[in-house]
């Protein structure tokens, strides 16, 4: 039986890597993010990788009614409700806690956590009915510890890990797994943007900042989106059925836990 996945944040970076990996593993994919043009590029890449169906559903992950609509639109476009949810959408609104706006803090919660909650609410009933499902969220090294000036981002990454573990506990006897991937530094536009911002703020080069970032990643390089996508594809396979409720590091040896 073939499976179908709904992937958020699929226009670039980790989301695109996940979409292509799942397509290559034989999944049909529904893709959502804000950029229609970039989603179209991901859909093309997914079809080239092997997806029989790859549909683009532009929407803002910070809009919960839009997320509910995406879940229903994906089911119509795919011909069945997705039995895989991969929540890759994420934003980073960083700065000193005393200066961080409530709007930025709340937007981070909506995109990084609440969207995953709403989509799981919408998709889990069909997974239960079918006796099979996979939920994968994307956490961060910041799911495990706090870093100064990242109150919005770090709190959401702790929260999405907690949410994932709750979903795992609730559905453990329903054939549904839920796991949170905890990446180190992944070679994405978001990470490159953060490197550029840090370089500007400190008056140094991007190369120097990246070198400092990678000191905590013993592999000595960034993780690729293809490598992370392959991990997601495994977690969405039948072979991964006993793996649930886990925070799974993919960080080049940065943390051994």
Automatic annotation (TrEMBL):
<dbReference type="GO" id="GO:0016491">
    <property type="term" value="F:oxidoreductase activity"/>
</dbReference>
<comment type="similarity">
    <text>Belongs to the short-chain dehydrogenases/reductases (SDR) family.</text>
</comment>
<keyword id="KW-0560">Oxidoreductase</keyword>
<dbReference type="InterPro" id="IPR050259">
    <property type="entry name" value="SDR"/>
</dbReference>
<dbReference type="InterPro" id="IPR036291">
    <property type="entry name" value="NAD(P)-bd_dom_sf"/>
</dbReference>
<dbReference type="Pfam" id="PF13561">
    <property type="entry name" value="adh_short_C2"/>
</dbReference>
<dbReference type="InterPro" id="IPR020904">
    <property type="entry name" value="Sc_DH/Rdtase_CS"/>
</dbReference>
<dbReference type="GO" id="GO:0032787">
    <property type="term" value="P:monocarboxylic acid metabolic process"/>
</dbReference>
<protein>
    <recommendedName>
        <fullName>SDR family oxidoreductase</fullName>
    </recommendedName>
</protein>
<dbReference type="InterPro" id="IPR002347">
    <property type="entry name" value="SDR_fam"/>
</dbReference>
């Amino acid at each position: 039986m073939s499976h179908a996945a709904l992937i958020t944040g699929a226009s670039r970076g980790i989301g695109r890597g996940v979409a292509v990996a799942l397509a290559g593993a034989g999944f049909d994919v529904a893709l959502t993010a804000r950029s229609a043009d970039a989603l179209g590029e991901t859909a093309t890449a997914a079809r080239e990788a092997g997806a029989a169906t790859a549909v683009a559903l532009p929407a803002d992950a910070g809009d919960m009614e839009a997320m509910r609509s995406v879940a229903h639109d994906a089911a119509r476009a795919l011909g069945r409700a997705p039995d895989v949810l991969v929540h890759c959408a994420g934003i980073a609104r960083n700065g000193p806690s005393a200066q961080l706006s409530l709007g930025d803090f709340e937007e981070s919660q909506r995109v990084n956590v609440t969207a995953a909650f709403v989509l799981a609410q919408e998709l889990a009933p069909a997974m239960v009915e079918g006796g099979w499902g996979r939920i994968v969220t994307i956490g961060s090294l910041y799911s495990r510890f706090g870093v100064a000036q990242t109150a919005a981002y770090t709190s959401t990454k702790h929260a999405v890990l907690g949410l994932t573990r709750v979903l795992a506990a609730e559905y453990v006897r329903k054939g549904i797994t839920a796991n949170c991937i905890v990446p180190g530094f992944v070679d994405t536009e978001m990470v490159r943007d953060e490197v550029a911002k840090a370089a500007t703020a400190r008056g140094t080069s991007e190369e120097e900042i990246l070198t400092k970032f990678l000191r905590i990643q013993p592999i000595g390089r960034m993780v690729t989106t293809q490598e992370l996508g392959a991990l997601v594809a495994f977690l969405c396979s039948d072979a991964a059925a006993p793996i649930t409720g886990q925070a799974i590091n993919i960080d080049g040896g940065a943390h051994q836990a």
